[in-house]
Write a structure and sequence with these properties.
By secondary structure, the protein is mainly alpha-helical. It has one domain. It is built from 4 helices and no strands. Helix 1 crosses helix 3. The two termini are 28 Å apart. One of its GO terms (cellular component) is actin filament. InterPro entries: Myo9 (IPR046987), Rho_GTPase_activation_prot (IPR008936), RhoGAP_dom (IPR000198). It is found in: Cytoplasm.
């Protein structure tokens, strides 16, 4: 919950050297990386998360369902949505 109230959490980038360090740690020693997450600034953690999503081979909102997501976003009635 640390970052829940941080303004610009996903807009502002973390220090690039720390982002690289954390990514390397999570790639090479995931258990240790997870244990040490709290030692990194919240913007560093958010930057690592953003890079993970950016580098997925297929986005979470898949290409196949893109049109459905767009249609759902255009529905104004909360009950229907």
């Amino acid at each position: 919950m640390t970052g829940l109230y941080i303004e610009g959490l996903y807009r502002k980038s973390g220090l690039s050297s720390k982002v690289r360090e954390l990514r390397r740690l999570l790639d090479e020693r995931p258990d240790e990386g997870v244990d040490r997450l709290d030692s990194y600034a919240v913007h560093v953690r958010a930057s690592v998360l953003k890079s993970f999503f950016r580098e997925l081979p297929e986005p979470l909102l898949t290409f196949d369902l893109y049109d459905d997501f767009i249609l759902a976003a255009e529905i104004t009635d909360p009950q229907e949505r």
